[in-house]
Amino acid sequence: MLTEEQVLNALKTVQEPILNKSLVDLNAIKELKIKNNMVSLKLAIAQPGTAEQMQLQQEIVTAVKNVGAESVGLRFEKMADEEVAKHGGATQGEGKSLLDRQDKTTFIAVTSGKGGVGKSTVSVNLAVSLAREGKKVGIIDADIYGFSVPDMMGIEERPKVVGQKIYPVTRFDVQVISMGFFVEDNSPIIWRGPMLGKMLNNFFSEVEWDDLDYLILDLPPGTGDVALDVHSMLPSSKEIIVTTPHATAAFVAARAGAMAIKTEHEILGVVENMAYFESKVTGEKEYVFGKGGGQKLAEELNTEVLSQIPLGQPVIDEENFAPSIYDTDHPIGKLYMEMATKVIGKTKK
User: Fold this and answer.
1) According to the model, what pLDDT value does residue 217 have?
2) Which residues carry a binding-site annotation for ATP?
3) Rounded to whole angstroms, how far apart are CA atoms 120 and 143?
4) Domain 99-347: CATH superfamily, name plus number
5) Residue stretches of the annotated binding site
6) pLDDT at 292 (0 to 100)
7) What distance in Å separates the CA atoms of residue 346 and residue 269, rounded to the nearest whole number?
8) Homologous superfamily of 4-92 in CATH?
9) Could you tell me which residue ranges the MIP18 family-like domain spans (predicted)?
């Protein structure tokens, strides 16, 4: 049976990449749990969310597996500036990276188990609704392969680049950054995991964000590389799981929820999208994709259904074109405003 002493001895040989000292000597291991040879670690390092962290993750996993661990779960937090300075490291300037503002900004990852459930539609409308409530909001289109936020919000301009800094585009009072801004002619992207992590980190560190109350992350569906990077970069992130009423969609979405629970991310709730179709003529509701998936998923994840969003289409305004944004007087727009109010209440912003 693997012991804590064996794990700590293994980590004595692993150095913190910025301070160049052993993780054990730095007292960087804040939490260590072992269950059935599965190891869970929480570590404080000088600069989380960097390429150096990605390399450190591999070294830790290799070292711990070499002493008998079957799996290794990792979470990172930023080491206190006083500790960094004490060990000879330079502290990062205030606001240098959005990752340094986790005490000021609430990060909300919007995820789903599978594609085609309307996750991006929920992301952009939640972001806009929070802004309409007077909050300072940003959104990262982290769905690297299926970026769609700029098109959904009717954004035609590109971010401004000044020196080494990128300035996000603002639309409906929401600051927006997306891979779609940096790809020509809707070209396909063929990237591997480490490259995705680097691009996501750039969105946090190289973009000149204003002070934010909320940052919405529109994640790719499933539990792949980008979702894993977000879980390690943002240990305090909240999550919203999007599903349809169909039992299969809810079953698959449970995997994304299970990842959130495993990494101790707080699940704010479930959004059941395409919950029903309501006839404008009779007012009768037709449950096109079945019933109960959202509630069943919420019960499984021990959370609540934040909203049931029906099938619908925003009223298109040619002068202020945004094909997926609902106005506040639209019935579905009102549902998103109610959802934003719930989110604010749950996060006390």
Assistant:
1) 92
2) 113-120
3) 9
4) P-loop containing nucleotide triphosphate hydrolases (3.40.50.300)
5) 113-120
6) 86
7) 10
8) Fe-S cluster assembly (FSCA) (3.30.300.130)
9) 4-69
Q: What is the pLDDT of residue 169?
A: 94
Q: What is the pLDDT of residue 95?
A: 43
- Show the 3-state SS of the chain: CCCHHHHHHHHCCCEECCCCEECCCCCCEEEEEEECCEEEEEEEECCCCCHHHHHHHHHHHHHHHHCCCCEEEEEEEECCHHHHHHCCCCCCCCCCCHHHHCCCCEEEEEEECCCCCCHHHHHHHHHHHHHHCCCCEEEEECCCCCCCHHHHCCCCCCCEEECCEEECEEECCEEEEEHHHHCHHHCCCCCCHHHHHHHHHHHHHCECCCCCCEEEEECCCCCCHHHHHHHHHCCCCEEEEEECCCHHHHHHHHHHHHHHHHCCCEEEEEEEECCCEECCCCCCEECCCCCCHHHHHHHHCCCCEEEEECCCCCCCCHHHCCCCCCCCCCHHHHHHHHHHHHHHHHHCC
Write out the two tokens for 160: 């401004």
Q: Which residues contact 208 (CB under 8 A, 6 or more apart)?
A: 162, 165, 166, 167, 168
Write down the pLDDT at residue 184. Answer: 57
Tokens representing 292 are 């109960």
pLDDT profile of the chain (349 residues), mean per 10: 92 92 93 92 85 82 92 88 78 58 83 83 97 96 81 90 81 92 60 58 83 90 60 77 82 68 78 91 89 87 92 82 92 96 89
